[in-house]
Each structure stands twice: as C-alpha cells, then as structure tokens.
Amino acid sequence: MPRPSTPLLSPDRIRSTALAIIDRDGLDGLSMRKLAAELGVQAASLYGHVRTKDQLLNDIASSILSAVDVTGFTVDWREGLLRCARSYRAALSSHPNIVPFLAYGPAGRAESLQRLDLLHGALVSAGWSRREATMIAAGLMYIVFGSALSTFSSGFSADPADYSDRYPHLDRAHLLPGVARELDRDSFEMALAAFVRGL
Predict the structure, then answer these.
(1) Which of 85, 124, 130, 133 shows a CA-CA span of 20 to 30 A to 30?
(2) Architecture category of domain 68-198 in CATH
C-alpha cells in the first residue's frame, strides 16, 4: 500500500485538533485518548510527537501567544504596554477555555519568557526599578486576564422587571447582555488607559 502523501500526524495538526477540543469541550475536556480518537490514531501514536499533555498545552499556549505584540516597546514603554495588552487580550479572547492554563504564568515557555524579558527590560530602561517593572507587568496581566476570563454582563437577566422596582439605579441592566461584546471591549480599554495614565 503506498504511503500517504501527507503524514497522518504532525505537530501542527495535533495542536490545532487539541485546541479545537479545548474550544469546544473546555480544558478538562481534553485528554490524550480523546485527541487520538479525533485524529483517527491510537493514543500511543501521539507520544512520538508530544511527551505529555502539559507539553502539548504549553505548545498550544506558545502558538496562541505568538500573536502578542511587543513591538511597541521600541517606540515608548507606554505604547508598548498598550499594544501588548490589546494583542494579548485579543489572543486570549479567541480561545477563552485555555485562559485558566495560561493564567498560571509563562512556566517554561521560552517565547513567553522572551516577551516578558523585553517588557521588563523596556520598563527598567525607562527608569522604573526592577521591582516596579515586575509590578507593572503583573498589573497589566491582571487587567488582560480578568477581561479575558469573564464578561461583566453574563450574570444579568434580560428581563427589565428583575431590576426596575428593587434596583432603581440598575433600571437598564437588562440591556447589558445585548451589548456584552462592546461593553467588555470598552471597559477593558478604560481600565487599560487608566492604568497606563496612572503610571
């Protein structure tokens, strides 16, 4: 039987299929057995490409976070923070189910550590102490991850009767679910601008 013209398994195919499972079923929904089934192979076949599930998750994380833009730090530390935060949030918002894994920090991901090193170096070069630079990077991540993990409007009912009598200042809260995307974006931008201005 002739060999297939394209390999059945490749790192890109494994990562993209695993990410599709995470997007669909959540982080806990990914297992090596389920991944193998979706790829049409035996689970043992995966281990020739990825040693562990954690390695696979770190590879997926590196792929997602490759979209984070740190070029602004060559212009100005403020511009760097703005570009970095916006592109980081966009990357996370595209795959919210993997955000809890990414929230643990850069771990051993070389690309993430390189971006963090560049950010930290730009802040120290601009006159911030090393401790302050660390705090600024942490503060930026709190804003980015907080905005990517949840939507403010998710817990609000669309029924005006739930608010109008008992909560007079929330008489328009029933409209929030309909403008969730816009509200989340604008709230993130306001928090980010306030953070950078405050610095």
Answers:
(1) 85
(2) Orthogonal Bundle (1.10)
Is the overall model pTM greater than 0.70, yes or no?
A: yes
Domain boundaries along the sequence of the chain: 11-63, 68-198
What is the full per-residue pLDDT of the chain (199 aa) written as tens digits?
555 544 578 889 999 999 999 999 999 999 999 999 999 998 888 888 888 898 899 999 989 988 999 999 999 999 999 999 999 999 998 898 998 888 877 667 788 888 899 999 999 999 999 999 999 999 999 999 988 887 787 778 888 888 877 888 888 888 888 888 899 999 999 999 999 999 9
CATH homologous superfamily of 11-63 equals Homeodomain-like (1.10.10.60)
Going from the C-alpha of 132 to that of each of 44, 127, 139, 176, the distances in angstroms are 47, 10, 10, 36
